[in-house]
What does this fold into?
Amino acid sequence: MDRPNYITPAGFATLRREYDQLFAGERPQIVETVSWAAGNGDRSENGDYLYGKKRLREIDRRLGWLSRRMKAAKVVDPALAPDRARVFFGATVTIVDEDDRERVLTLVGDDEADAAGGRIGWNAPMARALRGAAVGDLRRVALPAGEREYEIVAITYPQS
It folds into this structure.
């Protein structure tokens, strides 16, 4: 990775929870099913065995990905941001576009982004454009629908 994998404490906890659930919960159950199915004889037409092996590969792939992401993670608590007057990681920003449409966005780690929920990844074009902005600043963003200009009207951070 060429850039840090910034993530909030809540986002890291979510990754950790998924890892633990797969590793200690679902994977042992699938291993048990595959072991039982293997003991039933012919494996070529044994659905439990074939599905179980496929699901094990999926789980192992996901566990590897989660493990790499957690290892590369740099947990940043936005509540401890030193400069709350500017947009940095974890900030919740209220912006207004040229048509006076207001949007509220929170800049989070790429692994915890949810555009529909107003949580955009730190490396998304909109987040890159907003970084370092202060209230009253205008930022131009190149989006798939075309270039738009936004004014930052409010910046908040979570309380510690």
